[in-house]
Amino acid sequence: MNVNKVLDAKGLACPMPVVKAKKAMDELTSGQVLEVQTTDKGSKNDLPAWANASGHTIIDMKEENGVFTFWIQKG
To answer: Per the residue annotation, which of 5, 10, 12, 14 is the catalytic one?
Structure first.
């Protein structure tokens, strides 16, 4: 997968991972991919809900050692 930008939001609590993801996504063009790494359990629901509401697509998501990684394609 071709990732255009990586956002390290580990250690940040809600709503900061979504706020930072929105800011990072604003720097990308349509079709580019943002990788978001977070430790906030709420992100499992918050990031997909935000992406869907914003017209973006969650390509993949994984959880490993308490870190949630999302790959979001800009709509």
So the answer is: 14
